[in-house]
Amino acid sequence: MLSTSVRSDGSSKFAEGNKWGVFPAVSVGWNLTNEAFMEGVADTWLSSLKMRVGWGKIGNASIPDGSTLSTVGPYAGFWGGNNYSFGTTPQLAIGISPLSPGNVALTWETSVQTNFGLDVYLFENKLSLTADYFIKTTTDLLLVEPLPTIGGYQNAPWSNAGEIRNRGFELLATYKDQVGDFGYNFTATFATLQNEIISIGRGDFISSGSFNGLDDVTRSQVGSSIGQFFGYQVEGIFQNNEEINAHSVDGNLIQPLAEPGDVRFADLDGNGVIDNDDKTFIGSPIPDFSYSLNVGLTYKKFDLNAFFQGVYGNEIVNGVKVFTNYGDGVKNLQDGVLDKAWNGEGTSNTHPRLVANDLNQNSRVSSLYVEDGSYLRLQNVQLGYNFSKSLIKKIGATNLRVYASVQNLFTLTNYTGIDPELASYSPLSTGIDYTVYPKARTYALGVNLTF
Fold this sequence. Notes:
The protein is mainly beta and 451 residues long.
């Protein structure tokens, strides 16, 4: 089996000369069960066996309208922004300043993917397995590339700023059967992803993900995965002055402003000072694997369906902790913080003291914010009953089903924030909890009636 296609897509978001992209694709499949050497096997336990190879290009033009144009506009800052008073009798004049530089060189982000697949059906199609291994390389990556503040622009421009390679394995397994009045089907998925930055922007890395007034918390660096968390490594909490004095180089204190109960940061370069050179990778938002399970059960006229999904091995930066876990005397704290915070020698080695004047900068971006983001969630469960047709035909109906369902019934996780399933605003800054609205648990009763 051979399938080919070529498509040409155009977008008015790009300037002349870059509006159009051409994206071909080809796939080849081989159904081995149709071959003579498979005779006899297909009649026993193997129902179907198919091998697939595919290659193709796809384009992405997900940028705001006008990204190729330079823009100017008013800016209402704390002291009036760009407005200014002129004359002996001052009159306020509205001023404007550059907002963002345009980029007429913007073009299509292009992904080239090669896929190797296998489809297997066993035991009279009761069990089916679909396995895929893919290699996807994305070039001309569309990103907002930060500019130095001396450029004078309020917003950074969109750019074709790099190349990224993704490799992964995906597995889909389904088993279904009927035993008397009892029927069941199970569908499970399993997927892995390995991400590597080949090139990015004008240098070796891009920093992003600033939250709650702190430094950028992610670094996308050549040779690493995109959007890794980057900050200081925490080694614990100083329990007494002896530990502070011991944290020194050549008799000089590494953290001279620290007091008992403050965070001890790792001096990774050994120069006796905690500075930017001591920052390191402290976690990744990309999970080791993601998974799901759909369960369907039927017994006579009853049916039960449940859908589970989750991820494992990723980290989350709990940015909400800046407000809720470190007391400065003006914000509400999270329930339990007072009990967990250090309040004397030996009381905690994970939660610093609550202090309004944070001279040690305990709240700086560090592994203190990084938490395990793994979770398992029962996304939906539904129990239904189908009335017999002989009963409902008296009211002229052909089908009547009643059901009860619950969405977001429970979530198993070690994450201390509101929800480990976070929205992604940019590939450069995923996995950061900027304070999300919690998902509601919804209970529903319903009726499906067909005439």
